[in-house]
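Most newcomers find our protein records easier to grasp once they have seen one. Read left to right, the backbone structure tokens trace the chain's path through space. Once this layout is familiar, the rest of the handout is easier to follow. The record below serves as our worked example for the rest of this section:


***
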Amino acid sequence: MGLKIYCAYPIGFDCNLRCSYCFHKDRFETNYTAKSKFTFQDYCRWRDKFISEAEDILVNFHGGEPFMDGPSNTMRRFLNNTTKERLDLLTNGIQDKENYAKLVPYKDRINRIGFTYHRKMIHGIDLYMNRFEENVLFLKESGVKVYVKELLFVEDREAIIDNKAYWKNKGVDFKIQDFKGLNKGKSPEELNKYEPIDFLYIDQEYRKPIEYCECVKGYKNILIRGGWNDGDILACFEDPTVIGNIQKMEYTPYTIIKRDLKKAYKGIYCVDVQGVNKLYKGTYEKDLYTPGSVPSTPIEGCDR
């Protein structure tokens, strides 16, 4: 089987929801929303040099809401400037219908679009609830593969199960996901509320063989960063080890991700990357980050 790539591509950090549990919450008031400097052409040159043999490249536009006006236009420009890439997208589902309609002509290059129902933000607001449902059904009827998902907050368990039945009756797949929020969901407070049955409700897609691994099964994962560390390519969603850069035309693919379950930083299991020369030690404290350097502050319990 040929090489398959899952590429997380930055599209900005803007979102029209300000969820209190969002792991991008800190960026709402920071300067990390700076637009990426590398271009589609830079990406294509990098792709053609380093992953040209890939038989499938799934692109997920990460960092914000992709169906707002600006990002929606960016996605179309991306599709118009690339050929082999297909899109795998997530949306909060409450944008104008026109922004979703813009991608329908490209439906053959869309793997799927997931609609996250943010119950704590839009439930009970008729405008957003109606818009969410209309957009899901519009894309489904347009021939785009869609699904709906909710984050499992235990106090909403019964309502979420009812919602799953509701969408099943409409012929739409529904997934229940374990909580992903502040600190990428690694904070244990919400997970500690789960009872054994809750783990049975979680969709198989989100059941990872090792704690909190976020790699997409069957694909080699790369994460391109934007804004404050523009163009850097990371080895893993959980370890900010720089293994390349789009603008600098650099790439050293990792070989093995090693997880040390005995060491943790703020409750986060450490991961390490073997087989590459690190530019710096990974840390979740982004303010310590300087591209190509080692953080000056030691990270207790996470010594690589």
